[in-house]
Structures are given as C-alpha cells and as structure tokens.
Amino acid sequence: MIDNKINEDEFQEPFVFKTDWKNAFDDEEFVKVFSSDILENYIINKRWYGGKASTLKYIEVVDFFKISSKDNTYFGVLLEVNFKEAFYQHYFMPLAFMSEEELDTNTIIAPVKMNNIDGFLVDALHQEDFRKLLFDEIIHSKGTESSKVQFHKGNKLDDKEYISSKFMGVEQSNTSIIYNNTLVLKIFRRIYISMNPDYEISRFLTERMNFKSSPQYKGSISVILTEGNITLGLMQELVPNQGDAWKFMLEEVDRIFDNLNHKKIKINKLPDIDLFKRLKLNEVPHEIIDWAGLSIFLRIQTLATRTAEMHIALGSDIHETAFTPTTYNGDYTVWLKNRLTYQFQNRLNILENNLHKLDGLALELANQFLDHKKEIRKLFLDFDWTKMKSERIRIHGDYHLGQVLVNGDDFYILDFEGEPESTIRDRKVKQPPLKDVAGMFRSFHYSIYATIFNNKEKYPYEQKELFQAGEILFKYFVGVFLQTYTEVAQSGNLNIGYKKEIDFLLKYCLLEKAVYELGYELNSRPRWSVIPLTGIASIMEFEKHN
After folding, report:
1. Is the pTM of this model over 0.90?
2. What is the average per-residue pLDDT within 164-174?
3. How far apart are CA 456 and CA 459, in angstroms?
C-alpha cells in the first residue's frame, strides 16, 4: 500500500465496463475501449515505447494469457501497435485491476469500473504480489507446463523462496526487477515472434559453455504460439559492479587529458602510430605511458581478453547449429551488401537534410563525406567472400562500453539483444567476430571525444590540439586491445584470419559502425555528428595511404 492516496481530481471519469475483471479480455467492448481510448494515451509516454518517431494509427490486442496468484488475477497482454507509416511493432504488457486500497503504485493506466467495482488498471509489474508470482512460477517450474505461458528454471538457480523485489534503475527499453538482491529479471517490453537473442545467448553461454564473464542464466518466461515462441523475461544473476565501462572510461580519459596540462606534455611531440598497429605493453612508447599511465592499458588488455573469450565460447560448439561457426558464402555477401547499401543511402539522405544544422569541423567533414560517397559505397561493395579464410559466428551484435560492467579489475559482458535497428532475423545472422571488436573501438573513440566535448573549459588547449591528442590515444588503445585480442582468440582456435584479412574486416566493420552512428547523431544531437564523421575520415584516410 502507498501512503499518498490517488488524487481523484487528477483523473477523468472512470471508464465503465459491464464485464467483471476475470473475463475482461473475452469482452469485445472492454478490448475495444482498452486498446484505443485507454492505451493510446498511456503508451506514448513510456520510456520503453519505441514508436515515438512515427505516427500511431491503432493498437490491437493480438493475444493474452491469464495468470493468478492466491489473491489476484493478472493478464499478460500482447499488443500490436500499427503506424501510419505502414509498419507495426509488438509489445508485452502485464495488467492488473486493483482497488485503491491494494495499489502499490501511483503509476496508473486509467480509473475503471468493472461490473460495478471501482478500481484502477495498472501495469502489473508495479504490484509486489505480481512480481512475487513471477518469481514463484520460475522457482517452481518443472518445465512441463502445457499452458500458453511457460516458465523455465535454469540449472544454476539456487534461490528457494521470495524475499524482496524492487525496480532496477530507470526504465529503459526493458524493465528490470531485482529479486532478493541476488537476481535480475529483465522483462522485455518490445517483443518478437522468435527467441530473443539475449535469452538464447545467455542460456547457451551459461549452460553449455560455462562462460564466467557474463551474468549467469537463471531462468526465463516465454509464450508459446503457433507462429513461434516469444521471450517475455530473462532472469540472470545480479553481478556486483562499480558501474559500466563507459562511465569508467570517461573518468580514465578525463584523467589522461588532465595529465596533458599537469605534465606539460607537448601534443605535437607525442609519437604517432598507424591505426591497427598491434602493440604489446612493452612496445608502447614511454612518452605514452608517461602521459596515460600503465593501468588503463592493463585494463584494456583484460577487456580484450574477455572479448576474445566470449567469441571463443560463442564459436566453439559443434552440436547446436545456432552456434556452429560457418564460412563466408554468396548468400551472406548479398545480405551484407543489400543491408549496407540501403543503410548508407539512408544516412546520405539524413545528412543532406541536416547539413544546415552543422558548422565548423562537422560541416567540413560532412562535405568531405558527401564528396567521397562513391569511394565509401565502393568499399562496402568490395566485399569478396572468396578471399575470406576466417569464419563467421554468433556475435554480441551491439558491443560497446555501455554493455560491459566493471567488477574490480575485471569486466562482465551483458545484453546480447543485438542492434536495436536490426530485425530479429538479422541479429541472428553469423558475422565476423571482428564486428564486435569494431563496435568496441568506436566506443573508445566516442569516450575520447565525449570527454573533450563535455570538458571544453577544463583543458587549456585548442580543440584542434585535443582532437589530435585524442586520435593518438585512440590508436594506442586500439593497438593494445588488438594485440591481446588476436593472441587470445587464436590460442583458443577461433578462426579470425590472418593480419591482412583482420585489418580488412576491421576497417569494413568500423566504417559500417560509424555510418550507422551518423544517422543516430544527426537525428538526436547534430553537434556530436563530428564524432562518427571523424571516424569515417580517419578510416578513409587510412585507406588512401595503403
């Protein structure tokens, strides 16, 4: 119960229905009013709603299931949101009908009267009784349910009883609940008629590969439909951590830039190297160690090791076809080129429409990008699978510093859902593991430029000089990471090819990632588009020197 009673004046008159709550979704009138008048107003303001850039046309309830605790009946509702732009998205919404006395929340969907009983429709996750119900169903599941909704208990789940539950952090595209301070249940809001890759990979890494550097799989919730299975929830161990690696890297880079001034370092005297030059620690020049410190390079080596170990685990199963390594072929190449030429054209259009928002270096680089668009397109089309000797595997797919947790001197890798813009089928395509490596490199690049942007007043240097120092630092981060990653991957029999192929794939994937980011930045914060544009320029420059 909450103390602050709902203020009746905040709401419109309650929606009145003749049906009782237990039969609500069998009642046509309820379903009609719920999916239009009630839901359309509620859903558009939610963090997890992914259709904000489009125009909502109508919402349809496509399926539902009933699940009851001792005291309450709840519904799991599957929604199809249709847009005027002729596409749709699916969402999962657990629903409760509560009297004012029973409410655990002041987050209300709508006041309603069900068969003369006053109450409120609420998101059931806000009710502790419902959270406990989900927990108990997972704990006691035998894996033999014949109902539409299935709970699975992982073989590493030891908790015997429900003690407590609370929300984790702010609501993002999913909602995460912490149980007993030891477990996290991630409820997927946007759903796909297919196994969610996060569930699939997490379970595989824990139960088949015993991989130690990602949170252990503990259980899941799915809906079984004739068209396929939908993952609704993924339970994992709660990993003790000091925040994510993005926050960690921003602090490190800030410290490194502070050193420029404290140590009176002359930026134009710093030794530069080629991008992708591999470096053992003792090969990093003393001027760079003096400037950046040794610890950051040790941490980068650890991150590289964990990344390689993840790829070895994802690419070393010979029994489960979803995780068996495979070679390059014509089909993959057609898929890749179609995807990238479409994406590239889309980014060109966005850039041309947003040029007026850019100035200074960003505008200069944008014009350079437009001038060289034929070369960039050619690089994407120059993918010749017959020359590829390495193998493709299932990968993380959206790998960056924000997907890694810092745990003391070590790292945990999480969130295997894949790139948000990609279809669920595309996320399951086996790709070069170096695509993840390129994603992490782009994240290094971002952390350096974000530090420069966010601390303009702090460092007594011209922005141009800071960019110059940043590019040098970036190449050393890349060099140390690459040396360790390659050593560990190859010693684990992961076939990533030889140097020439590795460099080609890295360049290809870096360019793809930077072009992908360009669209995001132009749409959400044009000032930052200088970051992917700088990335593209340095990759293409690198291209000209070879």
Report:
1. yes
2. 85
3. 7
